[in-house]
Amino acid sequence: MLLTNDLLLRAARGEKTERTPVWLMRQAGRILPEYREVRSRVSGFIELVETPELAAEVTIQPVDILGVDAAIIFSDILVIPQAMGCPYQMIEQKGPWFEKTIRTEADLKNLHLADPEEDLGFVLEAIRLTKRELNGRVPLIGFAGAPWTIFAYMTEGSGSKTFSVARKMLYTEPAFAERLLDMITTSTIAYLKAQIQAGADLIQVFDSWAGILSPEQYERFSLRYISRICDEITEVPVTVFAKGAYFAREHMGKLSCQTIGLDWNMDIVESRALIGPNKTLQGNMDPCLLYSSHENIRNTTEEMLRAFGPDRHIANLGHGLYPDTDPEAVKVFIETVKNFRHSA
Ligand code: CP3
Questions:
Q1: Average pLDDT over the chain, rounded to whole?
Q2: Domain that includes residue 174, residue range
Q3: Which residue is closest in CA terms to ligand 1's atom 22?
Q4: CA dihedral sign, ordered 101, 104, 110, 116
Q5: CATH number at residue 265
Q6: N or C: which end of the chain has fewer CB atoms below 10 A?
C-alpha cells in the first residue's frame, strides 16, 4: 500500500522533506469529545483496547480531527504483562493496577513468553482494520514499552512516583531482574514483529521511567535490552523515547534505531551534539505550553522548529498530551508546524 503522506517515514530515514512532520503522543484519547463518546459505549479502557473495531475508530480520530501526519495504534504498553500472564486493570482517576506482582523466582514460573497471535490478536486485528480504513493517508505507528518500564509496572504492581520496589530489586535481586527483563524483551520483539506483519509502518519504544535510574543502572538494566530490540527490528524505522534519560543521550546515538525522542528538559542543540548527526530527533514541546495563548503557542513552536533545523526532525510534545488540553490549542500547535518553512 503506497502512502499519500509519508513525511514521517522519510524524516525518520533522514531523507529531505518539504516540511517537518507532526504527531502527538496520546493524540488519541480524552482530549477529544469524539473519543469520550466511543469510550462511553464500553465498560472501560481495557474493553476499548480489546475491541478492534473501536480501537481502530479512535486511532483514526486524530487524523481526521487534528490533521496529524501519523496515526498511533490505540492500545497500551501494559498488554505485554497481560500477555505474559500478569493481567492489569485500569482504575478510573488512578491508573494501572496489577492483582499479582512479579517479585520472586517462583512468580517467574507463572509467567510465559507472549505469543502475539494467541495473546495479542486484538491489537494485530486493530492494526489490520486501521490500515484498511486509513487507506494510505498517513503511516501507522506501532509501539511497545521498553523492558525496564514494563519491569517497573510488573514488580511495583501499579504506578508510583518513585518505583522504589522496582528499583530496590535491581540492588537486591539483580539476577532475577535480568531474567524477567530477558523474558519481557523476547516477548516484546515477537510482539513488535507481529505488529509490523499486521501493517505497522514505524515502531516506537516508550521508556517512560528511564529517568529514575542511575546512568550505570540505565545501561545495564534498560539500554542493553532496548539495544537488543533495535538490533532485531530491521523491517521498519524505530524510535526510542526514553523520558528523563538526558544522561544516556550519547549512548542512544549509538543504538541501531532511526529516531530518538526528546523530552522538554533536554536542550535541543546540546542533544543534537550528544546524539550526533545520524539520528532523527523527535519532540520536544512541554505539553503545558498548550494551556497558554494561541499566540504564545505559535511563537514558542516556531522557536522550537528553528532550534531543531530543517532536517531530521519530527515535531511532537516531550511527553503525552494532558487530558484536559483544549483540542483547539492542539490544532494551533499542529497548524504552526505544518505552515512553517525554514528560511534558506
Ligand atoms: O494516542 C496514543 O498515544 C496511543 C495510545 C496510548 C495509550 N497509552 C492509551 C491510553 C499509548 C501509546 C500509551 C502508552 C503508555 N501507557 C505509556 C507510555 C507513554 C507514557 O505516557 O509515558 C504508559 C506509561 C502507559 C501506562 C498507562 N496507561 C498509564 C500510566 C495510564 C493511566 C494514566 C492516565 O492518563 O489515566 C494509562 C491509561 C491510558 N492509556 C489512557 C489512554 C488513552 C487513559 C485511560 C482512559 O481513556 O480511560
A1: 97
A2: 7-339
A3: 208
A4: positive
A5: 3.20.20.210
A6: C
